[in-house]
């Protein structure tokens, strides 16, 4: 035993090195496996407050862009106001409130940290569990999808950006509804993504719109993702692989919306019930 | 001695802030991510005890990790170069050894020495960092390209900052 201690003491440098590296590997693996707030990430209050101050300054550079975007969105929303429909509504049956129920609510948030040039990119937003934000909520802008909430603290949340090797979004081609998974593959830069498994009978034209499909519990249907840039059929496959030009400019994100699916719990419960039922029947 | 410690602590904070507030926001595409904070590990005094090198590397890496959301990746890379540094210094030592009071900087040991010494540490750091980040070998060559291009940029910034720093020292 004494010799063992002597041995460790003599080679303390190597042992300390191994110890620290093991600790690092443990942290990395834990962070990858459990998608929950670890104690050191940018939701952490110290670094988050510094990053927020820096984002505040940065925001001024994008004010013009942000204003234009807001004005455009305002115009679009104004178009959807009942006032705009007044004339045509006169002779149309007016629906009662009971025939519509709200499925999604939107929370606006500010981006306080963002990256686009790593293999796995994340954002930090200034809304957290106190504002009702939970894991796996969708994040969008008026231009298109951004990502999915990953970790939440009291006042901040981190978002797994679409520009992340682990992100997959169920999406479809707007004109005919054929759907496939969209991911950010190797070789895609910050303005591109790849849509897989589109059957070859679909007639694609560059410029076709790609939107989110209805099969996602997270994203509302028909949220803009981007447009078709090019497509190839890899040898031996019966599917097209489509390069998609993203409609969101990830370099200029400053204000985003977090989407809450009010009926998510209900749908999940139902699907789980049918799954367990079918297992029992077997 | 106290002066050296104080200067290093200030350098720690300055480099971390420069990395996180300035360089993190300069985005030159997916292949160029310089990490200038490595300069701190490079110019630590020769007399720093080995165990302290490892601990300092770990703390520096974790601090950067907090801002980059990468939990342990930078820490692993920094601890690794802290481990390699003494051996690298040994290979490059002048025939009569390092004199007391010398620092591993351009002004004490010249440009060729500093370039080769820091290039090795920077490439090792970036290599470990990027491969841990990607965590698979299927993208080996594109990651290697990232390592090489980013290392060149980091080296460039490190050398430039050395000249800026030297100027300040002469005025003292």
Secondary-structure blueprint of this entry?
The complex is a heterodimer of chains A (282) and B (172).
Chain A: H1 2-10, H2 12-33, H3 45-61, H4 63-80, H5 82-89, E1 104-114, E2 120-125, E3 138-140, E4 145-152, E5 157-164, E6 168-173, E7 179-183, E8 192-199, E9 209-212, E10 224-233, E11 239-246, E12 255-261, H6 264-281
Antiparallel strand pairs in A: 1-2, 1-12, 2-5, 3-4, 3-12, 4-5, 6-7, 6-9, 7-8, 8-11, 9-10, 10-11
Chain B: H1 2-22, H2 38-42, H3 50-68, H4 73-91, H5 106-109, H6 111-134, H7 140-171
Helix pairs in contact in B: 1-3, 3-4, 4-6, 6-7
Strand content of chain A: 25-35%
Task: Show unreliable segments of chain B.
Answer: 168-172
- Structural Rg of chain A: 24 Å
Helix content of chain A: 25-40%
Under the CATH scheme, the architecture of chain B is Orthogonal Bundle
Distance, first to last CA of chain A: 58 Å
**Major sheet strand order of chain A:** 1-2-5-4-3-12
Strand/helix succession of chain A: HHHHHEEEEEEEEEEEEH
CATH topology of the domain at 45-82 and 102-163 and 255-262 in chain A, by name, is Thrombin, subunit H
Q: Using the alpha-carbon principal axes, give the shape of chain B.
A: globular
Secondary structure class of chain B reads mainly alpha
CATH superfamily of the domain at 45-82 and 102-163 and 255-262 in chain A, please? Rod shape-determining protein MreC, domain 1
Terminal Cα span of chain B: 17 Å
Derived from helix and strand composition plus strand pairing, the structural class of chain A reads alpha+beta
- Unreliable spans of chain A are 34-38, 83-96
**Number of extended strands of chain B:** 0
* Apparent shape of chain A: globular
Tell me, rounded to a whole number, the average pLDDT of chain A.
81
Can you tell me the CATH class of chain B? Answer: Mainly Alpha
């Amino acid at each position: 035993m004494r010799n063992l201690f002597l041995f460790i003491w003599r080679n303390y440098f190597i042992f300390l090195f191994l110890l620290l590296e093991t600790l690092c590997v443990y942290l990395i693996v834990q962070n990858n496996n459990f998608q929950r707030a670890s104690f050191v990430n940018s939701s952490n209050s110290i670094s988050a407050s510094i990053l927020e101050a820096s984002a505040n300054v940065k925001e001024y550079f994008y004010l013009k862009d942000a204003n234009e975007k807001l004005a455009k969105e305002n115009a679009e929303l104004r178009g959807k106001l009942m006032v705009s429909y007044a004339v045509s509504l006169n002779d149309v049956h007016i629906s009662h409130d009971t025939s519509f129920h709200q499925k999604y609510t939107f929370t606006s948030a500010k981006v306080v940290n963002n990256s686009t040039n790593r293999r796995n990119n994340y954002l930090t937003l200034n809304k957290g569990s106190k504002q009702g934000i939970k894991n796996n909520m969708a994040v969008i802008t008026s231009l298109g999808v951004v990502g999915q909430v990953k970790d939440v603290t009291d006042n901040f949340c981190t978002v797994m950006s679409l520009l992340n090797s682990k992100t997959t979004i169920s999406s479809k081609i707007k004109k005919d509804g054929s759907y496939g998974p969209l991911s950010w593959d190797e070789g895609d830069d910050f303005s591109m993504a790849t849509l897989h498994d589109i059957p070859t009978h679909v007639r694609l034209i560059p410029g076709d719109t790609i939107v989110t499909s209805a099969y996602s519990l997270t994203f509302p249907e028909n949220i803009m993702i981007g447009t078709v840039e090019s497509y190839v059929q890899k040898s031996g496959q019966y599917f097209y692989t489509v390069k998609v030009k993203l409609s969101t400019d990830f370099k200029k994100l400053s204000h985003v919306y977090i989407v809450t699916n009010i009926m998510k719990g209900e749908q999940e419960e139902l699907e789980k019930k049918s799954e367990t039922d079918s297992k029992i029947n077997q | 001695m106290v002066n050296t410690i104080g200067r290093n602590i200030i350098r720690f904070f300055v480099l971390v802030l420069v990395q996180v507030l300035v360089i993190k926001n300069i985005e030159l595409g997916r292949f160029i991510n310089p990490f200038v904070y490595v300069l701190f590990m490079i110019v630590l005094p020769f007399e720093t005890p080995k165990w302290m090198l490892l601990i300092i590397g770990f703390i520096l890496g974790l601090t950067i990790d907090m801002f980059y959301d990468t939990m342990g990746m930078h820490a692993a890379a920094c601890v690794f170069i802290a481990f390699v540094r003494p051996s690298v210094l040994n290979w490059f030592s002048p025939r009569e050894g390092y004199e007391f009071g010398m620092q591993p900087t351009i002004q004490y040991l010249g440009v060729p020495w500093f370039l080769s010494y820091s290039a090795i540490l920077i490439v090792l750091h970036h290599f470990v960092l990027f491969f841990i980040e990607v965590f698979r070998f299927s993208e080996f060559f594109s990651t290697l390209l990232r390592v090489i291009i980013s290392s060149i940029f980091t080296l460039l910034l490190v050398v430039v900052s050395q000249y800026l720093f030297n100027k300040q020292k002469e005025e003292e």
